[in-house]
Each structure stands twice: as structure tokens, then as C-alpha cells.
């Protein structure tokens, strides 16, 4: 199967702002930090957080991975296995908590602390309610 990897990447200006003014100075960075440290959040809360970040334009497609399943995507996305199955375009970091993987059916999967959470994007209003 072909999977698309989405990650949050800050621009140089956003990095400079975070460095000068702190982590809470760039909303995209705050949303990404919250997703990467969503311990104790319910799946519904995580899905709402992803939906908000998605509709805010935080995620960029950074690569494609050709794998049997999501677990192999995670392995390949972390430098293990046959790297010829990974096509990077953009600034793709190792696959981490808070990243998204879209499968061939169009379903987004949040990389979670343990495994993945399937996310159906609702409208933005529902995400921030």
C-alpha cells in the first residue's frame, strides 16, 4: 500500500519567533506540542485536536511510504528496513507522535503514544467547539 506522511514543519521565521518569544508565541507550534504530548487525552479529544490543526493548515505532506501496514510505515519512517520504500519530498523527520499518515482509502491516522488513532476530518467548527 501507498501511504502519505504529513508533519508539522515550522518556517525559519516561526522558529526565530519561538526562540525569541517562547513556545506559546506560534499557534502552529503550540498545537503540534499539544498533539505530541497528548497523554491523558481521549481519542475524541485527539481527533478534535488533529482536525483543528489540519484545517489551520499546520500539516504538510512530506513523503510517501510503500508498506504492508501502518506498523511498517512507522518502522520505515524511523529509518529501519528498506529505505527505498520511502520517498521523501519536503522536510521529512522521523515519524513521531503527532504526525499523520493517510492510507490509500483516504483515512488519516494519528501517530499516537501507542499505535495509531484513525481520524475522520469533521468541519472545523466541530473541532474547536
Largest sheet: 6 strands, antiparallel
Overall structural class, as computed from helix and strand content, comes to alpha+beta
SSE order in H/E notation? EHHHEHEEEEH
**Mean pLDDT score, rounded?**
89
- Low-confidence segments, given as residue ranges, are 125-129
The proportion of residues in beta strands is: 15-25%
Within the largest sheet, what's the order of strands? 3-2-1-4-5-6
C-alpha Rg (nearest Å): 15 Å
Number of E-state strands: 6
Helix content, binned percent:
25-40%
N- to C-terminal distance: 35 Å
Which geometry do the CA atoms define? globular
Count of separate structural domains = 1
Question: Helical element count?
Answer: 5
